[in-house]
Amino acid sequence: MRRILYIEDDLEIGSWVKEDLEHRGFEIQWLKSGDGSEKIVANHDLVILDVMLPGLDGFTVGQRLKKEAPQIPILMLSARTAVDDKLQGLQFADDYLTKPFHPDELAARIEVLLRRSGLSLSNELHLGHIQVNLSENTFIDQRTGEEIILTGKQYQIFMHFLRHPNQILTKEQIYESVWGEPYLEGDKTLMVHIRYLREKIEINPGTPEIIETIRGIGYRVKQ
Amino acid sequence: MKLKNSLLNQYLLIIFLAIIILPISFFLISILFYTQFSGTEEPNKYQNGIDLESMWQAEAQSLTGATDEQIAERLKQLQTEYSEATMYWVDETGQTKYKLPENATVPSSWSPSHTIDFMKKNRGSSVDPFTVVALIGEQKEEGFMVMQVPRSAMETTGNSLADKYNYWIMPSVAVVLTIFIFISWIFFSRIRKRLLRLRQAMSSPAENGIPDQISVFKKDEIGQLEIEFNEMIHQLESSRLREKEEETLRRQLIANLSHDLRTPLTTIRGHAFSLKKEALSEKGKESLDLIDSKINYLGQLIENLLSYTLLTSGKYPYNPKKTDIVRLVKTSFAAWYPVFENRGFQMDVEFPEKTFRWDIDSQWMERILDNFFQNINRHAMEGKYIGVKVDVVQEQIIIADHGPGMSGKSAGKGAGIGLSIVSLMLKDMKLHWDIQTGETGTIIRISRKEQS
């Protein structure tokens, strides 16, 4: 069971979100203010935090929670959209969603955040013929049952795709998050790595199905 | 008004003193002069002819019955006393007996006619030399004695003083005038200095753009001006502070307004979402979808409205940086790609390897691009086409669609606040945009201003 700490002062929204998320299989602890949240944060896998709260505002509460439990992702949920607020929120929060949000989007983002911290609902993922076991970091070709061994960079690139499912990633974005340094114009390193990666995981590397090329923009892995 | 508090009165005093001091200075200098010189100089013993004459007569009287030797002796004594004078003695027979100095030109014998001629010639107050003739003896028959003093020796002490006075008076007056000019100059240069200080204070603003207050030393007209200046600075500072407070209040208001509008929208969406899970007819589901899309629309409208308010009042945060345009547009479009993909759009993208940079706020640019993509998603569905291209050669961004054009009818058309925001933002970033729109599509080009 994945436990979510939900801090929201609006009763209507609070009860609706709580109900909806519980429906989706999360265990929700709902607080009406930030008081006492620091003590219980460690028992949860994720925090959903409203900005406008009675007493301490969401930014302050969030920063304290991050200090208390840095590994637990925080999703800010706010009706304030000013760019300043967004930037202030993202200084410590892992994601920022503005009201009126769609419950499906909220759920999707929760999934992404949990997966990023390794707490996805299922530790197993199926991409075409590849079975990914996230807890053991193994990739198994289901046709043969054999494990696919990836090099360090290939693994990092593939994991980056898995952490950003259905998202189109430009080669600059992938390069900079995997290599950790600025992408230089015309650098072909990433393309070469992706070609080798495809040779290992695609059935037919010439017409890739898992790592999709979005012409002119980048790559995408659909889940 | 007190004297020290009024420059006008001070100046009037200087002028008044100047007018008074000219006559007074003549007077003062005279007094000074006379007390200075007349005390030190002996009065000239030749200056008074009457004194000389009475002295000479008295001497002649006192020589009554004197021997020749006694007379000569006395004359010699007198000569030593009146060294300037020529003296001689003629006896009763008309013979010149004795003369001092020895080389004086005196006839040796005096005939009656010669004597009368001599007397005639030497009469009057202007004849030079001044001549005194005195008959010796009580009976006036013992001859006569003559004293002649050159007029030049008879100058009075006053006369010589007057000459000196005439010589000194002009420089003295000049000195007095110079002192007056000097005082005037000091007076005005001090005024000038203070005015310059004031100007300096006005023209050198502190960090907040408002000049510093200046310290006031005097309470005259300039001092009052300085006080007024300080008062003005004070008001300026407090109004600046008020403005800042108002701005904070305004931002707060906008943020709160946004919050207060969005919270009920979220609730509505929540209820709509809950309703959707109930058993509903197709029509009911359609209605709920419509409600959902309208909630989205309202949310964006609120956002746009607030952004527009901030933008027009120049309060929207703007942080320009050198930005890689190809990358920015590519990343921005990547987020929209799935939307267009799901709707079956034909996507024609062109992002070259080479790039160029503009000095812009990337958040603003993303917002602008989002607005264009959003518009195409909403209003250009029919064309099923989107073209996104970055032209490195001409440094421009081109976004095209095959929709019905901006003048065409579309279901979700609003008041165009989104495009107003785009227009404002592009203008602030010194970018130029150009729209070609018709029934078969729209092409938007964004380029640098100077290239247009």
UniProtKB/TrEMBL annotation, chain A:
Residues 3-114 form the Response regulatory domain. Residues 122-223 bind DNA. Residues 122-223 form the OmpR/PhoB-type domain. It comes from the Bacteria. Keywords: DNA-binding, Phosphoprotein, Transcription, Transcription regulation, Two-component regulatory system. The modification 4-aspartylphosphate is found at residue 50. This is Response regulator transcription factor. It comes from Cytobacillus citreus.
From TrEMBL, chain B:
Signal peptide: none annotated. Its EC number is 2.7.13.3. The keyword Acetylation does not apply. Keywords: ATP-binding, Cell membrane, Kinase, Membrane, Nucleotide-binding, Phosphoprotein, Transferase, Transmembrane, Transmembrane helix, Two-component regulatory system. It catalyses: ATP + protein L-histidine = ADP + protein N-phospho-L-histidine. InterPro entries: HAMP_dom, HATPase_C_sf, HATPase_dom, His_kinase_dom, HisK_dim/P_dom, HisK_dim/P_sf, HssS/ArlS-like. It is an enzyme of class 2 (transferase). Gene3D superfamilies: 1.10.287.130, 6.10.340.10, Histidine kinase-like ATPase, C-terminal domain (3.30.565.10). This is histidine kinase. It comes from Cytobacillus citreus.
